[in-house]
Amino acid sequence: MKITEIRTVRPSREEDDFISFPRGPSYVHPVELQKAEPLTNNFRVVVSTPNTDWRKIAKIIDNENIEAGYVQFYPTDNGIYISNVFLEPKYRGQNLAALTYKYLMNKYKLPLRSDDRQTVKGQKLWLKLSQDPEVS
What we know:
Elements: E1 7-8, H1 30-33, E2 37-38, E3 43-48, E4 56-62, E5 66-76, E6 79-87, H2 96-108, E7 112-114, H3 120-130
Parallel strand pairs: 1-5, 6-7
Antiparallel strand pairs: 2-3, 3-4, 4-5, 5-6
């Protein structure tokens, strides 16, 4: 299936303990969309670099081309620093963030690093990842 567009669903702020979601439409260039790779049977991931930002964004896209969430990160020589993660409430609990982290580690051949902020849910995810033999 060829991806031609992404529809973005905006988050509901009262449901989250911490969100930093970009304002305005979430635009992914059609050429980048063609590079989307499978994450699971129902989700794909595409990595893009916004023109005005130093971070990269791994967008998680469902089978209907709706953005399920994203991981903002920046790769350096010593690791992939995760700076922000967001998943729409209906997509949470499906292990998508962890699978995206593993995807990034395989793509860049670098270990994961956290930035200086974590939510309680984020701390639980990092603990879970630290116990995963594929990651540690």
